[in-house]
Write a structure and sequence with these properties.
Elements (H helix, E strand, L loop, with lengths): L2 H14 L4 H8 L3 H9 L6 H10 L4 H6 L9 H10 L3 H15 L3
Length: about 110
């Protein structure tokens, strides 16, 4: 993984989604300095922050890290999956039941 490319992809998705670096930091519960290091100094991003940033910006973690799989234009199912993973157990079960009923109602 080349750090410069990762930082470029982070800059791209943050800008594309209309976020400031401070908004990203607040949403992820980290310091603005950490986000600054990712985008300006090639700092390493923890897997948990990578996953949360990917969900926030509608891309796959693989796309941020490697530039492959789940480019911003093709990541709706990845985004939904990441959002469902963050639900509490009861809400996740409701979503899963709804999806099953939609899939098998025909």
């Amino acid at each position: 993984m080349e750090a410069k490319q990762v930082s470029d992809r982070i800059k791209e998705i943050v800008k594309k989604n209309g976020y400031s670096y401070n908004q990203v930091a607040r949403e992820l519960g980290i310091s603005a300095q950490a986000v600054y290091r990712w985008v300006n100094k090639g700092g390493m991003i923890r897997d948990s922050n990578l996953t949360d940033l990917a969900a926030m910006c509608n891309v796959s973690p693989e796309w941020i890290r490697y530039g492959t799989s789940g480019h911003p234009e093709s990541s709706d199912s990845m985004r939904v999956g990441l959002m469902v993973d963050k639900l509490n157990d009861r809400d996740r079960e409701c979503v899963e039941a709804l999806v099953r009923s939609m899939l098998f109602s025909k």
